[in-house]
Predict the 3D structure of the following.
Amino acid sequence: MKPTLIFLSLLLLLTSCQPIALVENLSPTSSSESNNRKIKEIPLDIGYGVDGGWYELYFTDPVHPEADSLRGGPDRKLAEAIDNARLSVDLAVYSMSLWSIRNALIDALHRGVVVRVVMESKNMNRSVPQELLEAGITIIGDRSAGLMHDKFVIIDRSELWIGSMNFTVGGGYEDNNNLMRFYSQKLIENYQKEFDEMFVDDHFGADTVSDTPNPSIYHNGTMIENYFSPDDGVADVIVGLINNAQESIIFMAFSFTSDPISEAIQARAEEGVSVAGVLDESQMKSNQGGEYDVLVQAGYDIHVDGIEGLMHHKVFIIDEEILITGSYNFSRSAEERNDENILVIYNSDIAQEFLKEFERVQAQIEIE
């Protein structure tokens, strides 16, 4: 057989042996092709939701006139997903007081689903965690100097829920928050490893190593980067993205005390990049070394929120194309001590939905 034919035969053989899962890692198409998919509204009694096919995005609505009913928000969708679990539910959350999630977890346990929970130890004495323990659900606390500050759920190892929302009454109905649902095996592998590191290996905070299986993936034409703190140097990642901003930097920040991130914003603003942001008022008043005054004095379009609850997002939107979001507050504690996670999503459709949320948060502000 001629050398060329031998080469082609070997190439075809190797190609045919590639696992199907690698389809998730296909090279991205152009931005217009990858993002030009119809997004459908997901009706919520209280809040906002959209379905992008391989993802769902949810936002709380603390100013809704019926928000005090504590029913029908994004937590309802998560509870429904847990209700449909057949094999397993792994949940890592800083705090939990929502009855919807409590009931869904206990019902899942009674159906024979394996339910495992990781929490911040300081919040385990609340009534809902105690009720879960009494029902027979195992909860592991972090028992560390930092915080177990993650907020994610893995259901049947086939879907992932993450965001800024703690599963609390305040988180779901009084605060500004986001919650996202993804169907990506590569992302699930990352979060499953992180969960097992805490629940099985009992490693929290600084007692961890950087070993994320898939730190960068392509899913449905979208590049997604995934980082965990304190082991992945998240602040440097955010600074690098800000340094590359060409047109705009927009952020929503519950806590913002990171000098490197603030300095990166100021440097890009000096080069003509527009800057706008909203910070939580309670954190702005209580944080020592907060960046609010620095950014306001520099003349940027920065405000504190206008709701009674918390502006709890941890979001950057770069050039209306790149989204940074997760549990990571822009602080030294998040960088060095806490268990945290972020996603960097290169998708203009998703970025636009978070821009809509930014506009909603801005509309809640009473500008004097």
Summary: The radius of gyration is 21 Å.
